Amino acid sequence: MLIRIAGSDLPGLECGAGDNFPGYENIHVAVQRRSRPDELLGLVPGDAPSARWDLECDVVETGDGVDFKGPYISGRPHERFIYLSWGSVGDDGTFAMFRRAKLWLDCIERDVVDAALAAGVLEARLGLTDARGHPLCASVRPPVIRWAAKRR
To answer: Are 105 and 73 contacting, i.e. CB atoms less than 8 angstroms apart?
Structure first.
């Protein structure tokens, strides 16, 4: 199955300091490969009008429901999530991560997962800026993120 993450309302290329946030420049966001913060999928600048990532995954039936598996799926069984990594890109092109968002998969309703398996795509829609105007971070669950089945 394909997981599509559709992000809107990005925070911009710069975020000023304040409230335990030192401020950053040339901000970008990407999906992080499981257990490999240096391997990123689809680096998007923070001033882009939107961001989109497509990830292939396997959905496995277990005695307790379904489990998601794939190179961009992190966490233990039934505690799976996808990392969005935020960082500054230096003049030499290196990415220095400063915060992450966990897009939790355990909060997706079973009927949505079943519909996505039939349709081919499980889509997540979310804004990528928090209430302070900074890059979205920490645990991300509904209503901040909306999951739906879509056709390929």
So the answer is: yes
In this structure, what token pair is assigned to residue 28?
A: 């970008």
Q: Which residues have C-beta within 8 Å of that of residue 111, sequence separation ≥ 6?
A: none
pLDDT one-digit tens code per residue, 110-144: 999 999 999 999 999 999 999 989 999 999 999 99
What residues have CB less than 8 Å from 79, skipping those under 6 apart? 106
At residue 9, φ and ψ (nearest 5 deg) are 50, 55
- Cβ atoms of 4 and 123 within 8 Å: the answer is yes
Backbone angles phi, psi at 112, to 5 degrees: -70, -40
31 neighbors 84 (Cβ within 8 angstroms):
yes
| Distance separating alpha carbons of residues 152 and 130, to the nearest angstrom | 30
Q: How many CB atoms lie within 10 A of CB 29?
A: 27
